[in-house]
């Protein structure tokens, strides 16, 4: 199966069982703490995430795969250090991974079925699945203190996917964790969202604030967001294991529309039709134009107060969206100005 997976562009494959009962108390405590924020679907599915055989009756094993995505793009640290440029999480610079990974998983499942007929379903970040838990139990890596999967040979820059199958496949051995006393990811988080090792309060996480949150970004967190307008990679950039990260081989993950080097002013000038045309097929498309402008307004509020930045903000001071107006007003106030 590993050879077939490699032929489809996956970097690795491993198999786990379906008993995740030991993960349920942690999931329950995380939800009880409200760390999921507005992601109601996390609570709605409850413990089904830890029970693969409830999600897909008859499931005996889970085949986990990973696919590298780190693109050849402008230097991430240099972009973060340039307050006038827009930082977009590296996974989102190209096309949306969901369809690509899912289609490859489907082909892999069909290839397996040709040799060993089985009942199956494929998933990639698309259902109530504890994918990191499953991947770590299968031995694809271990859960880092930032809660992402870490691999000694590849760091953490990859997508995960799963095949739930009724085949009684032999399971792989899990890998021991290798974080030791390191706390680089905790110290690097701009908003302190990693509240303890292996515990993330999504309500403070920049990825949540710029992608999942539908309303206003809390004012006290806005200055901490800097120029990150879609997602955040800081905990991964700080992780020593990512010195072994491998470039993604998929052309679809390459940056589109110069998103790895664009300025905040440039992106803020896009019309809604430009946003829809350029972001079609991108993970960014799903946040919509209004939240795109909201995020950019925060970035511009944190940017150096150049004439171009001020002019860009003032041009949207009377935006039809109340959400955008409020964030533009905040940004102008950061530069000592009032909206017009």
From TrEMBL:
Q: Which UniProt keywords apply?
A: 4Fe-4S, Cobalamin, Cobalt, Cytoplasm, Iron, Iron-sulfur, Metal-binding, Oxidoreductase, Queuosine biosynthesis, tRNA processing
Q: Where is this protein chiefly located?
A: cytoplasm
Give one Pfam family, short name only: QueG_DUF1730
Q: Which residues bind [4Fe-4S] cluster 1?
A: 179, 182, 185, 239
Q: Which domain of life is it from?
A: Bacteria
The cross-references to Gene3D superfamilies, in alphabetical order and at most eight, read: 3.30.70.20
Under NCBIfam families, the record lists: tRNA epoxyqueuosine(34) reductase QueG (TIGR00276)
Query: Partners and quaternary state?
Result: Monomer.
Q: Which family does the similarity line name?
A: Belongs to the QueG family.
Q: Report the protein name in the record.
A: Epoxyqueuosine reductase
Supply the source organism's classification. Answer: Bacteria, Pseudomonadati, Pseudomonadota, Betaproteobacteria, Rhodocyclales
């Amino acid at each position: 199966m590993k050879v077939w997976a490699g032929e489809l562009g996956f970097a690795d494959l491993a198999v786990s069982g379906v008993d995740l009962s030991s993960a349920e108390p942690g999931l329950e405590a995380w939800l009880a703490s409200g760390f999921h924020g507005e992601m109601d679907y996390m609570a709605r599915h409850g413990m089904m995430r830890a029970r693969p055989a409830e999600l897909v009756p008859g499931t005996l094993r889970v085949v986990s795969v990973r696919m590298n995505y780190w693109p050849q793009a402008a230097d991430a640290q240099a972009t973060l250090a340039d307050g006038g440029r827009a930082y977009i999480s590296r996974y989102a610079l190209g096309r949306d991974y969901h369809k690509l990974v899912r289609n490859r998983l489907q082909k892999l499942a069909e290839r397996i079925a040709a040799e060993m007929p089985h009942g199956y379903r494929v998933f990639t970040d698309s259902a109530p699945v504890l994918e990191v838990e499953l991947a770590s139990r299968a031995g694809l890596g271990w859960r880092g203190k930032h809660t992402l999967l870490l691999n000694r040979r590849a760091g953490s820059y990859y997508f995960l996917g799963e095949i739930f199958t009724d085949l009684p496949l032999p399971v792989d051995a899990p890998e021991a964790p290798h974080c030791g006393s390191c706390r680089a990811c905790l110290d690097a988080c701009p908003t302190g969202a990693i509240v303890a090792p292996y515990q993330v309060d999504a309500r403070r996480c920049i990825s949540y604030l710029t992608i999942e949150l539908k309303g206003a970004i809390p004012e006290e967190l806005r200055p901490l967001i800097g120029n990150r307008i879609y997602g955040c990679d800081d905990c991964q950039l700080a992780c020593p294991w990512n010195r072994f990260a491998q470039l993604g081989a998929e052309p679809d993950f390459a940056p589109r529309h110069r998103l790895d080097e664009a300025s905040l002013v440039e992106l803020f000038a896009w019309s809604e039709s430009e946003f829809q045309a350029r972001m079609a097929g991108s993970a960014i498309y799903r946040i919509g134009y209004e939240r795109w402008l909201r995020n950019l307004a925060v970035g511009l509020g944190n940017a150096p107060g150049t004439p171009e930045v001020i002019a860009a903000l003032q041009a949207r001071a009377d935006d039809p969206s109340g959400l955008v107006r409020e964030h533009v007003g905040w940004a102008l106030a950061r530069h000592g100005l009032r909206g017009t």
